[in-house]
């Protein structure tokens, strides 16, 4: 699988490894898996190592805290039941379905259960402003893309605007672009770069419909509609705002950043704003000789960037004055979709890493807690606890809650470690389980990491977490507390390097070497209090396809009666408290297209996995939103047909006659509602 990019300055496409296609590896993650593992730390040993690599740039961040001791800087309705699954004798609830059969990875089809229909809600290129031109794939421009729905939608949520559920606002992330299938060959490379840049970011779009359970329509001319692009100013909040580490020639104050990058998953706050994770930002900057801090984030001299530095010097860290530009990406951003004039923010207090997303819950004492994954092989799970308390109905106050608080990273201990041999065999105590602690990185606005200032901890958070002794995980992605039980679910998507020579071995938390299919961690905070500093944990699922002989674990549920599942990525909950998982990477693992799966958490069926839908060829399933109370499900279909070419597309999703696939938000609903 080797594809030459037809555009200069795009990452090389020849690489493929692990679960990802060559194109996804190159464009989404900047070949992160091909590069050396970023986390070479031995945690507690790291102090000695990094002290020798102290960089001059780190020193720039020295504030009042200890300079001398500073260390670091269509409608295909398929009813076929899955393997081993017989259609349920009686389907109940508002979202009843019989699991679909998994769809082979070569099939270009969006598949939903019998009795359901689907249609796109909004597609890449759809105009979202009055003055926006209709989408014409042969006549695109940077200007038109800035007025249209962006590419590769990932996180999506729909927030109601009225009590009758007939008006709402949709917020979506646009993680990255694939110029090879977006624009016709021969397009001026500068125009291509402009389209790509404006295809990133976020979209806010008002929706309307006739009533609950009916499909939504987007409103092109709503005053709420907004595109967030690389030109949109963001205000930095928190202790690192204004620090020397985030100042550039273009922003000597270090407080205003233009744009947001590689926005992956996210979360909607209890006060109605949307959080978005800046993930693989490392691939957008041309660099010279990387610092130790940059290397820890995967920023290397071989990073090709995406050519954006040819148009804007801020993407070239070798240009004097722009050495710190990359330090201004990798945060959780927050936008207020109800106020199109508001300035979105980047929260430095929540740390800087390859943020997958963030999900917020309110603790009994009113503080808010955000759970966050750093999606990289051998990286960590984080938690943020706000300084201030949530006040019901005080939106202005609540919008400040994520600007100040304490940052923690997780350390896990298994209770059967001696039995873990990397095969995934269940320990004799019948569970992959143990205890854990939340290790402080910052407290009361101060660093608790010896040798690192607060600014350094928040800008070089991975290095602080190394020093704290965090547990290396298999790419923790979405992390979300159940609104029903308070238990926290972590999707560890995979880790092809687990247990390889020189790499961290399998452990009870990550029990398989060369973990191809991923697993789900279930965390119970002590006292069921999200501000606790200790917790218990167990694995809910060890994913794979039992029918193909994979060593799996479904919390004891019979493995011959589950849908095969691989590479869990995003999680969500329905009103009944069931967990829903969307996947990213199943095609090159178990050989099926990615999908959306329901997992029963309680009772005799705990661990039962049932596939609800399957996305088209080469796509990953994002979102998702489960509205079981109104019989609807929403997903973002990201990178359909990614491995194809302009001349020979792998997908024509959503099958609207366009000659190239169009990433889209899809709504699935009971057929009778159409
Ligand atoms: Fe953008 Fe971690 O997936
Ligand atoms: Ca155990
Ligand atoms: Ca993801």
If you had to describe this structure to a student in words, what would you say it looks like?
A hairpin with a 6-residue loop joins strand 4 and strand 5. By secondary structure, the protein is mainly beta. Strands 15, 16, 18, 19, 20, 21, 23, 24, 25 and 26 form a 10-stranded antiparallel β-sheet that branches. Strands 10-9-14-13-12-11 form a 6-stranded mixed β-sheet, with no helix packed on it. Strands 4, 5, 6, 7 and 8 form a 5-stranded antiparallel β-sheet that branches. It is built from 10 helices and 33 strands. Bound molecules: MU-OXO-diiron (FEO) and calcium ion (2 copies).
Give the secondary structure arrangement, pairings included:
Elements: H1 22-28, H2 46-51, H3 56-60, E1 76-77, E2 111-112, E3 116-123, H4 142-145, E4 153-160, E5 167-174, H5 179-182, H6 189-199, E6 201-208, E7 217-218, E8 226-228, E9 233-237, E10 256-258, E11 263-268, E12 274-278, H7 292-296, E13 332-335, E14 345-347, E15 359-362, E16 367-373, E17 377-379, E18 381-389, H8 395-398, E19 405-414, E20 433-443, E21 446-447, H9 454-459, H10 461-468, E22 473-474, E23 476-481, E24 488-492, E25 519-525, E26 534-542, E27 568-573, E28 579-583, E29 595-599, E30 609-614, E31 620-627, E32 632-638, E33 664-670
Parallel strand pairs: 1-2, 9-14
Antiparallel strand pairs: 3-33, 4-5, 5-6, 6-7, 6-8, 9-10, 11-12, 12-13, 13-14, 15-16, 16-18, 17-22, 18-19, 19-20, 20-21, 20-26, 23-24, 24-25, 25-26, 27-28, 28-29, 29-30, 31-32, 32-33
The structure holds MU-OXO-diiron (FEO) and calcium ion (2 copies).
């Amino acid at each position: 699988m080797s594809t030459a990019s037809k555009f200069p300055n795009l990452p090389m496409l020849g690489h493929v490894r692990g679960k990802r296609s060559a194109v996804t590896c190159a464009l989404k993650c900047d070949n992160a898996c091909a590069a050396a593992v970023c986390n070479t730390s031995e945690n507690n040993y790291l102090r000695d190592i990094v002290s020798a690599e102290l960089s001059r740039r780190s020193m720039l961040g020295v504030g009042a805290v200890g300079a001398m001791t500073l260390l670091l800087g269509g409608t295909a309705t398929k009813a076929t039941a899955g393997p081993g699954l017989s259609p349920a004798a009686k389907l109940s609830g508002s979202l009843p379905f019989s699991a679909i059969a998994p769809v082979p990875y070569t099939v270009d089809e969006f598949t939903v259960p019998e009795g359901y229909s689907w249609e796109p809600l909004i597609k890449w290129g759809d105009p979202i402003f009055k003055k926006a031109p209709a989408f014409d794939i042969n006549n695109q421009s940077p200007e038109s893309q800035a007025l249209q729905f962006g590419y590769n939608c990932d996180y999506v949520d729909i927030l109601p605007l009225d009590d009758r559920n007939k008006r709402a606002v949709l917020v979506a992330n646009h993680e990255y672009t694939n110029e090879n299938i977006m624009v016709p060959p021969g397009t001026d490379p500068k125009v291509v770069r402009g389209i790509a840049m404006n295809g990133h970011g976020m979209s806010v779009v008002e929706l309307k419909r006739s009533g609950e359970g009916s499909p939504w329509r987007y409103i092109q001319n709503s005053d709420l509609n907004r595109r967030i692009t690389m030109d949109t100013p963001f205000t930095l909040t928190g202790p690192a705002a204004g620090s020397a580490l985030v100042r550039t020639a273009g922003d000597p104050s270090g407080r205003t950043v233009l744009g947001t990058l590689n926005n992956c998953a996210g979360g909607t706050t209890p006060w109605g704003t949307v959080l978005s994770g800046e993930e693989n930002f490392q691939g957008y900057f041309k660099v010279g000789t990387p610092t130790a801090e940059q290397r820890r984030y995967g920023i290397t001299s071989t990073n090709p960037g995406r050519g954006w530095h040819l148009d804007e010097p801020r993407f070239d860290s070798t240009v004097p004055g722009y050495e710190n530009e990359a330090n201004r990406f990798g945060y959780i951003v927050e936008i207020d979709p109800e106020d199109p004039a508001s300035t979105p923010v980047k929260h430095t207090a929540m740390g800087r890493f390859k943020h997958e997303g963030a999900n917020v819950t309110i603790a009994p004492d009113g503080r808010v807690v955000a759970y966050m994954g750093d999606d990289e092989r051998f990286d960590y799970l984080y938690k943020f606890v706000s300084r201030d308390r949530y006040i019901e109905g005080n939106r202005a106050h609540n919008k400040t809650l994520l600007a100040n608080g304490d940052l923690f990273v997780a350390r896990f201990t298994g209770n059967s470690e001696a039995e873990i041999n990397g095969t995934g065999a269940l320990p004799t105590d019948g569970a992959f389980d143990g205890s854990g602690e939340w290790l402080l990185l910052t407290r009361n606005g101060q660093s608790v990491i010896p040798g690192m200032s607060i600014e350094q901890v928040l800008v070089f958070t991975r290095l602080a977490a190394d020093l704290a002794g965090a547990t290396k995980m298999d790419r923790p992605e979405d992390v979300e507390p159940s609104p029903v039980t308070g238990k926290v679910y972590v999707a560890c998507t995979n880790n092809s390097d687990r247990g390889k020579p020189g790499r961290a071995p399998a452990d009870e938390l990550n029990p398989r070497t060369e973990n191809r299919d991923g697993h789900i961690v279930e965390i119970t905070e002590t006292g069921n209090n999200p501000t606790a500093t200790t917790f218990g944990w167990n694995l809910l699922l060890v994913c794979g396809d039992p029918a193909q002989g994979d060593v799996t674990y479904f919390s004891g549920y019979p493995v011959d009666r589950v849908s095969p599942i691989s590479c869990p990525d995003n999680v969500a909950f329905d009103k009944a408290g069931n967990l829903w998982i969307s996947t990213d990477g199943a095609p090159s693992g178990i050989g099926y297209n990615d999908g959306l799966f329901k997992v029963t958490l309680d009772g005799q069926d705990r661990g039962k996995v049932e596939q609800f839908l399957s996305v088209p060829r080469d796509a990953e399933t994002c979102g998702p939103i489960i509205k079981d109370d109104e019989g609807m499900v929403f997903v973002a279909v990201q990178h359909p047909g990614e491995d194809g070419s302009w001349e020979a597309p792998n997908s024509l999703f959503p099958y609207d006659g366009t000659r190239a696939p169009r990433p889209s938000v899809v709504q699935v609903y009971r057929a009778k509602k159409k």
